[in-house]
Amino acid sequence: AADVWAMGITLYAFVYGRLPFHDENIVVLYDKIRSSSLVFPPVPFISDDLKDLISLLLEKDASKRLTLSEIKEHPWVSAGSQYPLPSEEENCVLIEVTEEEVESCVRSIPKLETLILIKCMLKKHSFQHPFKMNAFIKEQFARAGRSHSAPGSYEFFLDRKMSLDTSLPAVDELEVSPEDR
Known about the structure:
Elements: H1 2-16, H2 26-35, H3 48-57, H4 68-73, H5 75-78, H6 88-91, H7 99-103, H8 112-123, H9 135-143, H10 153-165
Helix pairs in contact: 1-3
């Protein structure tokens, strides 16, 4: 029931761009959740089916809240039963994994820091550490009157400079054919 409540909060936030219940004080927030009724702002306009779904997801009595099966059958989700979602039996298929697939799988994923380090080394065509502390920069930092006695202050300066100078490649969305889904 808590997952369904969270789904309702998330759907409301997607639609309206804000939370249905809000307060900085957690005790007051819980009181608002228990005692305040759900309010649908006039903008943006949403269908009665969507209002009904959000209301049923945010039902305060957990025993009356929709179940996942009921959500799948709700008119807003299934477009008035025009597009019913498949049942669990129809949607679940046993997948056989071959020994060859197991042998060729990724064994470990390197840390992001390692990938960034390798990319910078390749970009500079150098196998020296690309982020080694530069004495000249450290001297400039001290001449500017900046104290680097605070933990991480100088390193923070270097990290910011590095992140501005380093561009990561864009990620493309993978297209999956309907047969592969």
